[in-house]
Amino acid sequence: MILPLDIIIEAITFGIVVAGSLALLRGIEAIIDVRRRLGQDPATATRAGPASVFRGDTVRNPILLWVQSSTSLNDSKDRQKLRRELSQAGFDHPAAPVWYVIARFALAIGLPFLFLLSQKFAAKPMGGFGLIVVALILCGLGLIAPHMFVSNRGSARREQIEHEFPDALDLMVVCVEAGLGLEAAFIRVGQETLESHPRIAEEFNRVSDELRAGRGRADALRSLADRTDVDPIKSFVALLIQTDALGTSIGQTLRSYAVEMREHRFLKAEEKAMRIPVLMTVPLVACILPVIITALLLPPILDVMRTLIPALAGHH
After folding, report:
1. What contacts 187, CB < 8 A, 6 or more positions away?
2. Is residue 160 within 8 Å of residue 154, measured between CB atoms?
3. Considering all CA atoms of the chain, what is the largest pairwise distance in Å, rounded to the nearest integer?
4. Which of 5, 59, 100, 238 is the most exposed place for a label (fewest CB within 10 A)?
5. Cβ-proximal residues to 129 (8 Å cutoff; 6+ apart), any chain
6. Residue of 189, 195, 265 lying closest to 224 (CA atoms)
7. 254-265 average pLDDT score
8. Residue 18: how many CB atoms within 10 A of its CB?
9. Are 160 and 18 in contact (CB under 8 A)?
10. Per-residue pLDDT tens over the stretch 81-116
């Protein structure tokens, strides 16, 4: 069987296009891999740390300044507290507190407005007291939802940093014992853990940037503890500051703390494993126990029904 010439030409064209596309994709992957190894990947450069360690915490936009001065952010204590909560959740931009307040007010006003607008075009609109209650609930939800989002995101980020920190600490022990100084160890660990542990790598890179910019080691470490708000990192920072003040060996101190962190991780994993039987009790009671009870009681119930129904029918 001889294929037509046009089918042969289409098959050859399709093969050339596929081969060319594969070659182009491999070339692009090779270029990206080379740029990543040379540290020129834009995504890696963006995640490696802040663009400038001298970035201030002031807002320059006149509209945002007006919002800041017209709300509770005008109080420096409230503003610093909110900025710290947002920073722990990963929002460390200077204008983040202002945008947070704008989002809360927008949701508190926008959700009831959209609900009332939808009721106007609905086939059977809600009216009376129920309409007011739903609008008030949506208003309260708009005020609470951003706080819940920031709180949950901050808790999740702290858990992830706490999970990533022991591995980064082990790598730092290796770097220090290999002869690197503490500043160089922060840089090296931040570079090596950027892909596998991005959050702790971001924090370590920020510490190294601050140290290179001339900030004191103790201040940079305390800033790390404040940003993360994780107990193991707070202990790590206090240990490093005390070791630096007393002049003892940093390598031996880090190794002892790394051993303690591994034991802590093991105990935490053991605690989670011990919780499994308790957690399995709920589905067992809710799903399996009713089936077992039904299987055990159904035959006696059927026997009673077979005995009582004829007896009752005979009496009638």
Report:
1. 204, 205, 208
2. no
3. 102
4. 5
5. none
6. 189
7. 87
8. 10
9. no
10. 888 888 888 888 888 888 888 998 899 999 888 888
Q: Is residue 34's pLDDT more than 80?
A: no
pLDDT of residue 35: 64
Asked whether residue 47 carries a pLDDT value surpassing 80, the answer given is: no
Q: How far apart are CA 237 and CA 261, in angstroms?
A: 14
For the segment 197-249, what is each residue's pLDDT rounded down to a tens digit? 889 999 999 898 888 888 888 898 998 888 888 888 999 999 889 888 888 88
Please say whether the beta carbons of 240 and 250 come within 8 A. yes
Task: Kindly tell me the burial class for residue 98, based on how many C-beta atoms sit within 10 Å of its own C-beta (0-12, 13-18, 19 or more).
Answer: buried
